[in-house]
TrEMBL record:
GO terms for molecular function: lipid transporter activity. InterPro entries: Lipovitellin_superhlx_dom, Vitellogenin_N. Residues 4-49 form the Vitellogenin domain. This is Vitellogenin domain-containing protein.
Length: 53
């Protein structure tokens, strides 16, 4: 699971791979994974990955 979070957090990775890593993690997330995802999404600059505000 931590390797998927690592892919999701790595902004140098293709956005489609990052999105797929995100989807894999949220299928059965741990509290720590959700915390890390939230941290990333709060500062995300790639429009394909960030949440709409």
């Amino acid at each position: 699971m931590s390797s998927l979070i690592g892919v999701f957090r790595d902004t140098s990775v293709d956005s489609e791979l990052r999105i797929n890593a995100y989807l894999a993690v949220v299928r059965c997330p741990s509290p720590d994974a959700l915390s890390q995802i939230r941290q990333v999404l709060e500062t995300e600059t790639v429009n394909q990955v960030c949440i709409a505000q």
